[in-house]
Design brief:
2 domains; Ubiquitin-like (UB roll); DNA polymerase, domain 1; 5-stranded mixed beta sheet; single chain; 5 helices
């Protein structure tokens, strides 16, 4: 990166270790998108209010637009690009396709990540649990009802 204050960090993303040179205060989303060229997670609001930047960190959905990259040292990060490595992620992705759960697609990666985290922790959630898990994720196109159906389909309910 060459920026003043850059340090060498190692982060583990999608099962691979990556040596990066970054300011340790750089939000993770920028490292993923700019240094690792993983473009699935999107920068929406930059304030942890829309969910477009969600990634899995040790299996939990985390918004990556504000938290500094150094906070993720020693943790396993999974982006939407790596989510299909696990059966639950593959099931969620297939259900999103089958339910036509994306319209413009901007929020889709974050929603897929959130749904995968939910179904990993709660394999058979009821509708209220699904809605609660998706609440932090904004979809301006109106495909939210299809997203809920996709999560229900992936859960097998």
């Amino acid at each position: 990166m060459g920026a003043c204050g850059a340090v060498s960090l190692t982060i583990r993303v999608n099962g691979q270790s990556h040596e990066i040179a970054s300011d340790p205060d750089t939000p993770l989303i920028y490292v993923l998108r700019d240094e690792l060229k993983l473009k699935g997670a999107k920068l929406g609001c930059g304030l942890e209010q829309c969910g477009a930047c969600a990634v899995l960190v040790d299996g939990k959905a985390v918004l990556s637009c504000v938290t500094a990259v150094e906070a993720f040292d020693g943790q396993d990060i999974t982006t939407v690009e790596g989510i299909s490595a696990e059966e639950t992620g593959r099931r969620v992705q297939a259900a999103f396709v089958e339910a036509s759960a994306a319209q413009c697609g901007y929020c889709t990666a974050g929603l897929v990540v959130a749904a995968t985290a939910l179904l990993t922790e709660t394999p058979d959630p009821d509708r209220e649990t699904i809605l609660a898990a998706l609440t932090p994720h904004l979809c301006r196109c109106g495909s939210h009802p299809r997203v809920v159906k996709a999560v229900q389909r992936a859960a097998g309910s």
